[in-house]
Specification:
The protein has seven helices and no strands. The chain has one domain: Up-down Bundle (Ferritin).
């Protein structure tokens, strides 16, 4: 790996993990109080699972972005895939402040549904130019689909 490639990978990791850190700033203070008081679906995992899962997912996301940026030649298809990656990343970064910061469970459900759609489009756009990058996003898609059912359950139960 060249220095340029390693620098790009570090930048991608820093970006994606920073989104996670910002989300945790809104999330962590609400876990013992507001979140603990919500009625949650029976399939909701214990709170300690979320930071572990999200850390792994942010690393996979960063690796996918790095592959698109570093391993794929510049092209319109690459611009589209990276553009959709950033759309989904913005939606991802919006969910925690909406759900935990504002206690907007219904608004957060709209955000996470939009996020789910953006992830699917990102995977489809990425698959055209780098199958590995697309595959790296599949666990993220699965987790966000699962998280969507939890968010929907919270809306219904509260």
């Amino acid at each position: 790996m060249t220095l340029k490639s390693a620098s790009r990978l570090l930048a991608c990791l820093a970006l994606c993990l920073a989104v996670g850190v910002v989300g945790s700033i809104f999330t962590a203070p609400e876990i013992p109080g507001w979140y603990a008081g919500l009625t949650k679906p029976s399939w909701t995992p214990p709170p300690f699972v979320f930071p572990i899962a999200w850390t792994v997912l942010y690393v996979l996301m960063a690796t996918a972005l790095w592959r698109l940026w570093d391993r794929v030649a510049p092209s319109r298809a690459r611009q589209i895939a990276i553009g959709w990656f950033f759309v989904q990343l913005v939606l991802n970064s919006a969910w925690s402040p909406v759900f935990f910061g504002w206690h907007g469970t219904r608004a957060a459900l709209a955000v996470i549904v939009a996020l789910l759609i953006a992830i699917i489009v990102t995977i489809l756009a990425s698959r055209r130019i780098d199958g590995v990058a697309a595959a790296l996003l599949l666990p993220y898609l699965a987790w966000v689909a699962y998280a969507t059912t939890i968010n929907a359950g919270v809306v219904v139960l509260n």
